[in-house]
Amino acid sequence: MAAGLRAPRERRPVGALAARLEGDFAVRCESERDFQDFSEYGRIVVPAEATVCGTRIVVCVSTFGSLALVCADNPGACLGTDEAQAEDDLDAADLASALRALADLGYAVVPEELIESDDDGPSRLPSHVARPSWWHRFFGIF
Fold this sequence. Notes:
With 142 residues, the chain is α+β, with helices and mostly antiparallel strands. The chain has helices spanning 14-25, 81-86, 92-104, 112-115, 134-138; strands at residues 30-33, 40-46, 57-62, 67-72, 108-109. It has five helices and five strands. The longest helix has 13 residues, at 92-104.
């Protein structure tokens, strides 16, 4: 097993995060788990109708420890949460609610602005990945 990768029983429960976000946003949140061949372990979607800006919030959880990512609409739809707020796609209070839920449950949030940075470390990424990023390492295909 890769360094830093936890066995499934040691991962933070995505169900608990989904339940917390459902309570905080007072809406049913869609969740997906166990993406095959990806470093992303799970994803929770807060529906657009529950957000101030009318754009869904997506929370991605990595298979690596307790790393998580918060983004507006989809990962990569904006250059990060700062841009999403500037474009009125993400409300500061909604973002704060998602970040608070993650912090309370022990997740470490990686800013989307950083996750797209180049990863020049050794990797076994597929040959079609021309420019490996931290997204590929911690959330993408392997």
